[in-house]
Predict the 3D structure of the following.
Amino acid sequence: MGTAYSLIGCDPVLFKANLDCIPVAQALFPFHMSDLQIQDLQIKQTFLERHIEEQDRVIYAMQAELGKLAKEIQNLKARADSNSDGDDMPANEKPPHY
C-alpha cells in the first residue's frame, strides 16, 4: 500500500504543480465541497469548540465543589471522632433527666 499520491501516480511535492495529475485525482477522489458545505462545517466546528469549552468550565467547577465537599466530610469525621472520645454514655445507663 502506498499513499494517496502513489495511487494517482504523482509525486507529493509536484502534485499541485503537475496539471496532468488533476484529472486522475478528481477521478479517484471525486469529492467537491461547495463554499456552503465548508461554511456549514466551520459553523459546526465552532459550535463544538464552544461546547467543549463550556463542558470544561462545568467539569472544573464540579471538581472544585467535590474538593470542598471532601474537605467538609473530613472535618465532620474529625469532629465526630473528637466528640466520641470519652463522652459516651454506657448503653445501659439512664440519661440524667430520668
Notes: The two ends are 92 Å apart (CA to CA). Residues 35-83 form the longest helix (49 residues). The CA atoms of residues 39 and 66 lie 40 Å apart. The chain has three helices and no strands.
